[in-house]
Amino acid sequence: MASAHGTVAHLLPPNYKQDVTRWLAEDCPSFDYGGFVVGEAMGEARLLGKSNGIVAGVPFFDEVFRQLDCTVEWHIKEGEPFEPIKHCATVKGPVRKILLGERVALNTLARCSGIATKSSHLLHLVRSAGYPNTLAGTRKTTPGFRLVEKYGMLIGGCDPHRHDLSTMTMLKDNHIWACGNSITAAVAAAKAAGGFSVKVEVECRSEEEAVEAVEAGADVVMLDNFTGEGVREVAGRLRSMFCGSEEGGKAKREFLIEVSGGLTEENVEGFVCNDVDVISTSSIHQGVKHVDFSLKIVH
């Protein structure tokens, strides 16, 4: 996982600060009536963790209050689990500005922490089932909030998968149908456009499609919506066909096998197989329960 090799926050692009500016502008597009009531007196607020979870989203939380001339002191490290009620951080600054940033900071932290918590839990399940390879999210993220959600996956120990359409070419059923239902033609076009630096992945609904994808030169073959038993059988045969001896078989190819489609914490263990390089699921970031936080002024 990324956190084992460095500080995950160092991955963030500078423009995340512009996102924070937009969030604050969205929440207070005109007069701050509540802020007028409390005024500019200096104050202190405690960030309280009120449900079990993992803290994630610290850089976004910090930036909200930095832009409002407040300071944040953390009493727990990002990525650490906690039990309620936990005093996670202390925010100091003008009371008006603490309250101006409160909801934006809490919403971002709660969402990011929820994703990290869910990611960590599912990763623990597959590791306990003996799966040593990659657990990843998907691109089914919230428009405008993708960076936060991908960051939460990383803090939870999972792979965020591709970030956008430019990161990797994924050829799905619609792409294949638009190319005359030819995986070979679609892969050739993708390779020509992306060159050597852009990987090509093909979503496959059958073993026959997977074989065609590998022979066409796909870097990643996704077995989509297979059963657990089907995954183990097809992944094993693909390895035998293309990674074993060429005598009586096919030319050796280097490729990754990804499994996706309807995977949740209730069924993912049934898909665990060492022939599979990547298990991807949107269940670690879509419809995830938030971690409950509150920010309380000390009085």
Descriptive keywords:
alpha/beta; 4-stranded antiparallel β-sheet; 18% strand; elongated; 6-stranded parallel β-sheet; 299 residues; 12 strands
How does the SSE layout of this entry go?
Layout: H1 16-27, H2 33-38, E1 42-49, E2 53-54, H3 58-66, E3 71-74, E4 81-82, E5 86-94, H4 95-128, E6 134-136, H5 146-155, E7 169-171, H6 173-178, H7 183-194, E8 200-204, H8 207-216, E9 220-224, H9 228-243, E10 256-260, E11 278-280, E12 293-297
Parallel strand pairs: 6-11, 7-8, 8-9, 9-10, 10-11
Antiparallel strand pairs: 1-5, 1-12, 2-4, 3-5
Summarize the structure in words.
It is built from 9 helices and 12 strands. Helix 8 (207-216) links the parallel strand 8 and strand 9 (220-224). Helix 1 (16-27) crosses helix 4 (95-128), helix 4 packs across helix 5 and helix 7 (183-194) runs parallel beside helix 8. The protein has a 6-stranded parallel β-sheet with strand order 6-11-10-9-8-7. A 4-stranded antiparallel β-sheet has the order 3-5-1-12, with helices on one face. Strands 2-4 form a two-stranded antiparallel ribbon. By secondary structure, the chain is an alpha/beta fold.
